[in-house]
Specification:
mainly alpha; 84% helix; rod-shaped
Amino acid sequence: MYKAHIMNRRNILGTILTILGSGGLLYAAIWFVNLSEGVNNTKALVILGILSLVFFMVGINLVNNTKNSA
Protein backbone atom coordinates (compact mmCIF):
# COMPACT_ATOMS: atom_id res chain seq x y z
CA MET A 1 0.00 0.00 0.00
CA TYR A 2 2.75 2.47 0.97
CA LYS A 3 4.75 1.67 -2.18
CA ALA A 4 1.72 2.47 -4.35
CA HIS A 5 1.50 5.94 -2.79
CA ILE A 6 5.15 6.64 -3.56
CA MET A 7 4.67 5.50 -7.15
CA ASN A 8 1.60 7.71 -7.47
CA ARG A 9 3.53 10.73 -6.12
CA ARG A 10 6.37 10.13 -8.57
CA ASN A 11 3.87 9.95 -11.40
CA ILE A 12 2.24 13.22 -10.30
CA LEU A 13 5.64 14.91 -9.91
CA GLY A 14 6.69 13.65 -13.34
CA THR A 15 3.51 15.03 -14.88
CA ILE A 16 4.00 18.43 -13.19
CA LEU A 17 7.64 18.63 -14.32
CA THR A 18 6.67 17.66 -17.86
CA ILE A 19 4.00 20.35 -18.00
CA LEU A 20 6.36 22.98 -16.54
CA GLY A 21 9.10 21.98 -18.98
CA SER A 22 6.85 22.06 -22.02
CA GLY A 23 5.40 25.41 -20.93
CA GLY A 24 8.88 26.82 -20.48
CA LEU A 25 9.98 25.52 -23.87
CA LEU A 26 6.91 27.06 -25.49
CA TYR A 27 7.58 30.37 -23.74
CA ALA A 28 11.24 30.26 -24.83
CA ALA A 29 10.18 29.58 -28.42
CA ILE A 30 7.78 32.54 -28.42
CA TRP A 31 10.45 34.70 -26.79
CA PHE A 32 12.98 33.58 -29.44
CA VAL A 33 10.65 34.63 -32.25
CA ASN A 34 10.15 38.09 -30.69
CA LEU A 35 13.80 38.48 -29.60
CA SER A 36 15.37 41.88 -30.05
CA GLU A 37 19.11 42.35 -30.16
CA GLY A 38 20.80 42.23 -26.78
CA VAL A 39 23.19 40.03 -24.85
CA ASN A 40 21.04 39.93 -21.71
CA ASN A 41 18.02 38.71 -23.62
CA THR A 42 20.05 35.96 -25.27
CA LYS A 43 21.54 34.77 -21.98
CA ALA A 44 18.13 34.65 -20.31
CA LEU A 45 16.67 32.81 -23.29
CA VAL A 46 19.41 30.17 -23.23
CA ILE A 47 19.07 29.68 -19.46
CA LEU A 48 15.28 29.37 -19.72
CA GLY A 49 15.57 26.93 -22.61
CA ILE A 50 18.08 24.70 -20.84
CA LEU A 51 16.16 24.63 -17.55
CA SER A 52 12.90 23.91 -19.37
CA LEU A 53 14.52 21.11 -21.33
CA VAL A 54 15.89 19.58 -18.12
CA PHE A 55 12.47 19.77 -16.42
CA PHE A 56 10.81 18.24 -19.48
CA MET A 57 13.29 15.36 -19.76
CA VAL A 58 13.23 14.57 -16.02
CA GLY A 59 9.43 14.62 -16.02
CA ILE A 60 9.20 12.29 -19.01
CA ASN A 61 11.78 9.98 -17.42
CA LEU A 62 9.85 9.86 -14.13
CA VAL A 63 6.57 9.07 -15.87
CA ASN A 64 8.10 6.37 -18.07
CA ASN A 65 10.11 4.64 -15.33
CA THR A 66 7.36 4.60 -12.69
CA LYS A 67 5.47 1.33 -12.74
CA ASN A 68 1.81 1.63 -11.86
CA SER A 69 1.07 -1.17 -9.40
CA ALA A 70 -2.59 -0.26 -8.81
